[in-house]
Amino acid sequence: MLQTKRLFDDAPYDCTFNANVIEVGEDYIVLDKTLFYPLSGNQNYDTGEINGIAVTSVSVEEEQNESNKLSFTSPIKHYVDTSGFEVGQQVIASINEENRLRTMRLHSASHVVEYFIRQMSSFLSVEGSFVNIEKDRTDYKMSESITAELLASLEEQVNNFISQENEIIFMTEDGLRYWQCRDIKMLCCGTHVSNTKEIGKVKLSRKNKGKGINRIEITLMD
């Protein structure tokens, strides 16, 4: 079975890499290793170039094994003009560095926000999330809506925590990958900064989606 090594798990700040083509499809290629994060785990895909050809999308088949855990070696498809590629070819690729860093900052901020929302007595559950270069949005089911005053207090708590320069690490336990910052530990397979100081100041906004769902959106202030 074709497999792609996920370079971004251990080297999220790297932006260029060499790889070999192991499959050429009608509109995509598969590499033996990649820094391109695919659309998965509620995080948008990376963009960039392979041999100077624009990568327009990246996806992965999130296959699960017998233990119902996601595979970290599934083939990752890079959607490109395939006319200049062939199996066995060596390529040079690069991802958009600015976009990767913005996504990492926002994704890390989302975990901090979630941590503080979970401390609220009205918190019930997380109903979904998505992060890209523009913002993170997460839907929270609450027994009471988050008021403007509570949102302002939440934003202050989050920015205070971020400013404390807390280290962020990843660990794998029993085949599962975790994001950890101080005493916060959450399952996550995305890319993140290594310290909260890299996030910078964030702005929070709220949208009432009905049925007790509060959508919290996070944007960067710089």
Walk me through what this model shows.
It is a single chain. This protein is of the alpha+beta class and 222 residues long. It folds into 2 domains: 20-95, Elongation Factor Tu (Ef-tu), domain 3; 99-220, 2-Layer Sandwich (Threonyl-tRNA Synthetase, Chain A, domain 2). The protein contains 2 helices and 16 strands. The chain has helices at residues 97-118, 148-163; strands spanning 5-6, 16-24, 28-31, 33-34, 48-50, 53-55, 57-60, 76-79, 90-95, 123-131, 136-142, 168-173, 176-181, 184-187, 202-210, 213-220. Strands 6-5-9-2-3-8-7 form a 7-stranded antiparallel beta sheet, with no helix packed on it. Strands 10-11-16-15 form a 4-stranded antiparallel beta sheet, covered by helices on one side. Helix 1 crosses helix 2. The longest helix has 22 residues, at 97-118. The radius of gyration is 19 Å and the shape is elongated. It starts with a strand and ends with a strand. The model has no long low-confidence stretch (mean pLDDT 94).
